[in-house]
């Protein structure tokens, strides 16, 4: 059994503040641990490579595909990271960013993510609205 691992990413609640989200080893660790809808979203992140996903709604810890979120891809014309990072194998160990992101969805259960920054196929930062 592997020891519990803690990872963190930044979540922007508004333009003036940010919070660090921390996920522990209790979240999904492998691609096969994700639901089919979560797997599809992870593949979408990988296909985007660099860019953003806007207006993603989720319910029960799963992304909602209708209405479809808006995707903005950044196409790098030169330099490292010009293509998306794809895993061709059917199952693989999730990166810390994936674990944190999907743990956030599971913990919150339902909501709206205004914007998700995708860097080299990984969710790097997200902006969510909360009622104070």
List keywords for this structure.
20% helix; alpha+beta; single chain; 132 residues
Describe what this molecule looks like in 3D.
The chain is an alpha+beta fold. The chain has one domain (7-81, 93-128). Helix content is 20%, strand content 36%. It has helices at 36-48, 96-108, and strands at 7-14, 17-23, 51-59, 62-63, 70-73, 110-119, 122-128. Strands 1, 2, 3, 4, 5, 6 and 7 form a 7-stranded mixed sheet that branches. Strand 6 and strand 7 (122-128) form a beta hairpin. The longest helix has 13 residues, at 36-48. It is globular, with a radius of gyration of 14 Å. Mean pLDDT is 81; it is low at 1-17.
Oligomer: single chain
Question: Count of DSSP E strands?
Answer: 7
Instruction: Estimate what percentage of residues fall within beta strands.
Output: 35-45%
Q: Give helix and strand order, one letter per element, not per position.
A: EEHEEEHEE
Global morphology: globular
- Largest sheet composition: 7 strands, mixed
Helical fraction equals: 10-25%
- Helical run tally: 2
**Global Rg:** 14 Å
Count of individual domains: 1
Distance between the termini: 40 Å
- Summing up helix and strand content along with how strands pair, one would put the structural category as alpha+beta
Which residues form runs of ≥5 with pLDDT under 50? 1-17
Whole-number average pLDDT? 81
């Amino acid at each position: 059994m592997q020891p519990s691992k803690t990872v963190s990413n930044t979540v922007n609640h508004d333009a003036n503040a940010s919070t660090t989200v921390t996920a522990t080893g209790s979240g999904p660790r492998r691609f096969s641990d994700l639901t089919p809808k979560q797997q599809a979203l992870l593949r979408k992140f990988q296909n985007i490579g660099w860019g953003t996903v806007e207006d993603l709604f989720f319910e029960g810890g799963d992304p909602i595909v209708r209405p479809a979120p808006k995707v903005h891809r950044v196409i790098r014309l030169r330099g490292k990271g010009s293509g998306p990072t794809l895993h061709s194998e059917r199952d693989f160990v999730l990166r810390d960013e994936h674990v944190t992101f999907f743990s956030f969805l599971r913990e919150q259960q339902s909501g709206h993510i205004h914007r998700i920054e995708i860097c080299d196929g990984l969710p790097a930062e997200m902006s969510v609205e909360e009622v104070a």
